[in-house]
Amino acid sequence: MAKTQKSKIYEYCIENVTTQEIFEMQCRMLQQNLLDLQKEELIESDDGSLTQFFSYRGMEIMVLYDADLQEIYVQSKIDIEEYIVQP
Fold first, then answer.
1. Residue 26: how many other CB atoms lie within 10 Å
2. What is the rounded distance in angstroms from the CA atom of residue 50 to the CA atom of residue 35?
3. Which of 8, 38, 50, 61 has the most CB atoms around it within 10 Å of its CB?
4. What is the pTM of this model?
5. Domains along the chain?
6. What is d(CA 73, CA 39) in angstroms, rounded to the nearest whole number?
7. What pLDDT sits at residue 7?
8. By the 8 A CB rule, do 24 and 33 touch?
9. What is the pLDDT of residues 1-27, one digit of tens each?
10. What phi, psi does 41 have (nearest 5°)?
């Protein structure tokens, strides 16, 4: 997993062994551990990529499954490293 921080935005990348199942697991992990998390819109692209948006205490958290690259990206304004799945 790679972690970067850009001007108070944390980005996490889960590489190599990523599937839609891991994407769903990542979304569940956030929902189970962030008590005030609200699930918002799920967007599916033509290529099968999925983007799930969440709202957490006025901040947006985004989970993206890139079907072409088979990677998952998580972006948040808070550090949620402990809730990132380790496949």
1. 23
2. 23
3. 61
4. 0.88
5. 2-83 (3.30.310)
6. 17
7. 66
8. no
9. 655 655 689 999 998 777 899 999 999
10. -70, 140
